[in-house]
Automatic annotation (TrEMBL):
Residues 11-23 have a biased composition (Polar residues). GO terms for biological process: meiotic cell cycle. The lineage of its organism: Eukaryota, Metazoa, Chordata, Craniata, Vertebrata. Pfam families: DEAD, Helicase_C. This is RNA helicase. A motif (Q motif) lies at residues 171-199. Residues 202-385 form the Helicase ATP-binding domain. Residues 171-199 form the DEAD-box RNA helicase Q domain. It comes from Varanus komodoensis (Komodo dragon). Residues 413-558 form the Helicase C-terminal domain. It is an enzyme of class 3 (hydrolase). Coiled coil: none annotated. One of its GO terms (molecular function) is nucleic acid binding. It catalyses: ATP + H2O = ADP + phosphate + H(+).
Length: 607
């Protein structure tokens, strides 16, 4: 599986469009997987109506009826990249879609050692993309997220710590005994007050303990592990040298998507500013020579996606003998069937210190019990488990609304909502890569500036899409699960679930793209009773736990579902407690200034 392509992105199967007798509107409304491969090639000088005709988007050319937005058969599109170059659309110019970036035919898609792509006689073209360097000005490095009006409410969040002899929480950065350089960088970054996960995690990491931390989205988990690791490295010294063929970083941070590891890298760069510590980021879709060059300049902290990390270790450009800290961000995803095998390969690599010789940290907003059991292979037996807030629950700063909308009405309802939202940044989530492109193209035809991001897009296109979204050029981003976890984009005020995910974990992560750092956000979900019934029960509970209104019709659907639960490959419970509690009579709980409740059985079970 590619670094950025999670199993939650439904595989697109099948081939071209068929004459099934469905109307164009029906085809677009239902978006059956594999109906059409998409990439809409609009020329700058094409009028909108003509563009929709030439790209197969319904509508008629040269002054005939206004395009309806429906898809006509008659053209097959690639699904790897859009050339949304019409009005109010981000421009992803890929040229003739039958050709690769290097000019050769792209018949086989993205075939790789993991078995993706296939059906083609030729291998994928050589990756030549080199990303632009990040800005080096101090102002750009320390640009920070503005906290919202509800940031102070974090002080009232319930915190639970389980495990033996946890260190006491700290109430201010000064209590962590960080060096002056780190203290200055923290202030420059706009961090003046600790969040709950930081109050508990920082002293635990400083004490050298392994940690599994579970906190709501947007609660400051990245700083919770970066700051104490940097403090240790500043105290102990570092060994990286640009003259070494093989770099041996002291810290490796692994995350599931390219966008997230790049975000962690930018935070590492911020806090390490003015120190001897050099962070490096590596991920797929980048020219290998460029990646190796970045590593050989010196590497103390390596931020990586799993596939590229194993690749670079196999090339012997990264050694593991001096590794002290292993961090898994979005750890539930890193350990499930999406990345679990790669993580097991990582800890089995030659030179990897055994778990009793390294410090392992895991952070996520959700930790199902099955994942906790898998984590035992990575963590020392005396690890500490920190729970912040309603685990598996949505942030209370997100106003959640569920609308009953059938498949064929979703597009019109989406246009209605986006027209009312205006230029405010909005993320629209769908379940498949093809639908992301379909929907983005349709919205462009409706004169709504839109771009899309998913795992089949070239890295250059993904970065350009995020840039257009962040800059406001395209205030609407249609996304698959690639963007659901960890991605922190300022001023995302709305999240719309065009398709509800199959698991409630993914729902929580999706709506967590808004309402971050005490800011207020809104999440609207389209619920189709015919396809979304299995998620009704857990959705009702998430809404109720966050003190959101639960529609009567949704409660009826949830009740009619009985004890069926919901479709999830990882079971139907959030892990709200340390799974070791099942085998231990009494746990040590720690408040450190917060109200702490007694941990009991998993009351977040949907049954």
């Amino acid at each position: 599986m590619a670094d950025e392509d999670w199993d939650t992105e439904i595989s697109d199967q099948g081939s071209g469009d068929t004459d099934s007798g469905l109307s164009a509107v029906q085809k677009l409304g239902s978006f059956p997987a594999g109906t059409i491969e998409t990439s809409c090639n609009f020329s700058q000088n094409i009028k909108p109506a003509e563009a929709s005709y030439r790209s197969g988007l319904g509508g008629k050319p040269n002054g005939e009826d206004k395009p309806t937005g429906g898809f006509e058969s008659g053209r097959t599109f690639e699904n790897r990249g859009n050339r949304f170059e019409g009005r109010k659309c981000s421009g992803f110019v890929r040229g003739f879609q039958g050709m690769s970036d290097s000019g050769g035919p792209r018949w086989g898609g993205r075939g790789s050692v993991r078995g993706r792509g296939g059906f083609g006689a030729f291998t994928s073209p050589k990756v030549t993309y080199v990303p632009p360097p990040p800005p080096n000005s101090e102002d750009a490095i320390f640009a920070h997220y503005q906290t919202g009006i509800n940031f102070d409410k974090y002080d009232n969040i319930l915190v639970e710590v389980s495990g033996l002899d946890p260190p006491p929480a700290i109430m201010a950065f000064e209590e962590a005994n960080l060096c002056q350089t780190l203290i200055k960088n923290i202030a420059k970054a706009g961090y003046f007050k600790l969040t709950p996960v930081q109050k508990y995690s920082i002293p635990i990491v400083l004490a050298g303990r392994d940690l599994m931390a579970c906190a709501q989205t947007g609660s400051g988990k990245t700083a919770a592990f970066l700051l104490p690791i940097l403090a240790h490295m500043m105290r102990d010294g570092v060994t990286a040298s640009q003259f070494k063929e093989q770099q041996e970083p002291e810290c490796i941070i692994v995350a599931p998507t390219r966008e997230l590891v790049n975000q962690i890298f930018m935070e590492s760069r911020k806090f390490a500013y003015g120190t001897c510590i050099r962070p490096v980021v590596i991920y797929g879709g980048i020219q290998m020579g460029h990646t190796i060059h970045q590593i050989m300049q010196g590497c103390n902290i390596l931020c990586a996606t799993p596939g590229r990390l194993l690749d670079i270790i196999g090339r012997e450009k990264i050694g593991l003998n001096k590794l002290k800290y292993l961090v898994l961000d979005e750890a539930d995803r890193m350990l499930d069937m999406g990345f679990g095998p790669e993580m097991k390969k990582l800890i089995s690599c030659p030179g990897m210190p055994p778990k009793d010789k390294r410090q392992t940290l895991m952070f996520s907003a959700t930790f199902p019990e099955e994942i906790q059991r898998l984590a035992g292979e990575f963590l020392k037996s005396d690890y500490l488990f920190v729970v912040v807030g309603q685990v598996g629950g949505a942030c209370s700063d997100v106003q959640q609304t569920v609308l009953q909308v059938n498949q064929y009405d979703k597009r019109n309802k989406l246009v209605e909502l986006l027209s009312g939202i205006g230029d405010k940044r909005t993320m629209v989530f769908v379940e498949t890569k093809k639908k992301a492109d379909f929907l983005a193209t349709f919205l462009c035809q409706e004169n709504i500036a839109t771009t899309s991001i998913h795992g089949d897009r070239e890295q250059r296109e993904r970065e350009e899409a995020l840039h257009c979204f962040r800059s406001g050029k395209c205030p609407v981003l249609v996304a698959t699960s690639v963007a659901a976890r960890g991605l922190d984009i300022e001023n995302v005020q709305h999240v719309i679930n065009f398709d509800l995910p199959s698991t409630i974990d993914d729902y929580v992560h999706r709506i967590g793209r808004t309402g971050r750092c005490g800011n207020i956000g809104k999440a609207i979900s389209f619920f189709d009773p015919y396809s979304d019934g299995p998620i009704a029960q857990p959705l009702v509970k998430v809404l109720a736990d966050a003190q959101q209104e639960v529609p009567a019709w949704l409660e009826e659907i949830a009740c009619s579902a009985g004890g069926i639960g919901f479709s999830s490959p990882r079971g139907n419970t959030f892990a709200s407690v340390d799974s070791r509690m099942v085998f231990r009579g009494k746990e040590n709980q720690h408040s450190g200034g917060f109200a702490v409740s007694n941990i009991s059985t998993a009351d977040e079970s949907w049954d």
